[in-house]
Design brief:
The protein is of the alpha/beta class. 43% of the residues lie in helices and 15% in strands. Strands 1, 2, 3, 4, 5 and 6 form a 6-stranded mixed beta sheet that branches.
Length: 347
């Protein structure tokens, strides 16, 4: 996948095993969160880090940020209580890369975990007393991607009485449900955690279904906000919607599943375009933005999604390929700039 660097990390005293993957630093330091997950094998962890870090290069490029793409994964049970030494060990490995990689929270990690990382390195964002939880900004971006998709498909981005099936009611799923509810959408939701579902049902009048039933509900939009790979051979034939737009990373199990959505005339808002609000939020710490500016930047995802659909139409290609082209154009353009003195950062 063209990675610049992949680091296998191990600190036996802290019970820490991890992988840090740097895909590209063409646009700037490689930024991407740290995922804490109980992988079935080391190979599975490495492949996840490689895929996610490559996705961050494209996500940061499409979002118009001066950041490259990277990702870290920690192998283990993310429910463990002994977190300080584990994340301080992780911070030391991040520090050893000298700023080539900047980490943040992701699945299985929190702002409190990033505070432990910060004890060992300054190359970390998403801290408790700074930009904090990126979920509201991520949800805003996904909401705007859904509106843009509606505009492209129905020539109207008004979501009043549109039925949206939301898979995953965690932090991002909850805030997305809130945005959709405020916009007048009808919600059908699911999650493996019954308490999360109950909260969304109570707060926003959503209808709950079993996890496996979310794919076949009749509606307008499917918003995957859990883990990736859920657009696959098994689920695509079940879909009864016109749009797929959500917050989950790597929604397509394989690229060909993007072609399968196209064949069924289901409009797909590429995941890393739609969910870029999270990285916009953590970038705000580096750039010195306030929360209001982060939300304004997330609102730009609306126009970016429309640009992706326009490229797809002009070049007669699926939207997931069009998103890659948009990202690659920016990486190539910035990479071809003539370097002048002094180099940045001038340290």
């Amino acid at each position: 996948m063209g990675h610049e660097q992949v680091v296998l990390c191990h600190d036996d005293s802290a019970g820490y095993r991890g992988v840090i993957a740097i895909h590209s630093t063409t646009l700037g330091p490689a930024l991407g969160g740290t995922r804490f997950w109980k992988y079935a094998s080391d190979e599975e962890a490495v492949v996840d880090a490689l895929r996610l870090s490559r996705g961050m290069t494209y996500k940061n490029a499409v979002a118009g940020l001066n950041l490259g793409g990277g990702k870290a994964v920690i192998i283990g049970d993310n429910k463990t209580l002994g977190r300080e030494m584990l994340f301080r060990a992780h911070g030391r490995f991040v520090e050893s890369l000298g700023g080539r990689y900047v980490t943040a929270e992701d699945v299985g990690t929190s702002t409190a975990d990033m505070d432990f990382v910060h004890m060992e390195t300054d190359y970390v964002t998403g801290l408790t007393d700074r930009s904090g939880d990126p979920s509201p900004v991520t949800a805003r971006g996904v909401f705007r991607a859904i509106q843009a998709s509606a505009k492209w498909r129905w020539d109207d981005d008004d979501l009043t009485n549109r039925t949206v099936a939301v898979q995953g009611c965690g932090h991002v799923g909850y805030y997305l449900a809130q945005e959709l509810h405020t916009a007048g959408a009808k919600l059908i939701v699911t999650d493996i955690d019954a308490e999360r579902v109950k909260r969304v049902v109570t707060d926003f009048g959503a209808r709950a279904v079993k996890p496996d039933d979310i794919y076949c509900v009749e509606g307008d939009i499917f918003a995957p906000c859990a883990l990736g790979g859920i657009i696959n051979d098994k689920t695509i034939p079940q879909l009864r919607v016109e749009i797929v737009a959500g917050a989950a990373n790597n929604q397509l199990l394989e690229d060909r599943h993007g072609d399968a959505l196209e064949a069924r005339d289901i409009l797909y808002a590429p995941d890393y375009v739609a969910n870029a609000g999270g990285v916009i939020n953590v970038y705000s710490e580096i750039a010195g933005w306030d929360s209001a500016r982060s939300l304004r930047k997330a609102d730009e995802i609306y126009e970016t999604v429309l640009s992706v659909f326009e490229i797809a139409k002009q070049d007669s290609i699926p939207s997931y390929v069009a998103a890659d082209r948009l990202a690659e154009r920016r990486v190539q353009a910035v990479g071809s700039l003539v370097k002048t003195w002094p180099q940045w950062p001038n340290k």
